[in-house]
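From the pipeline queue, job 12 of 40. The input is one protein chain; the requested action is below.

Action: predict structure.
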Amino acid sequence: MAYKPKVGATMSSPNVIPMADIMLVLLIIFMVVTPMLTKGLSVELAKVTSPSDMPDADKDDAVIVGVSSSGDVYLGNTKSDLSQIADQVRDRISNKLDKTVFVKSDGRAKYGVVVKVVDEIRAAGVDNVGLLTDKSDQNRRAAPPPPPAGD
């Protein structure tokens, strides 16, 4: 008679511990990578009631010029001098068919700085300048008041 080892009881439920470990690792990776996906300068955009939709601003090759609340000018993620912005924009749009540049300005930035930036962009030979804004919540209707309590 041959020796036959005894096998323990079989587990009838799946082991989800490795799957939970993988999910936690993926969650951490997404939490680290997501802030890096922000394109350009992070600003609080001006709020308007009737914005135009500009889906081309989300493209990878879109040229975005940012103006911070302190008046600093950025081309993409790099800080730039206002006097050099025209040359830098001209270099970026030289081989593109769509010569549109988007201006992402902080709502608290001085109007004069934004006008100078737009003027420099137009001097670079840009056909279209798009101003990026957020939709205002002011046109939202307030909830109607509750009806008076009847006796």
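Job complete. The helical segments are 17-33, 85-93, 111-123.
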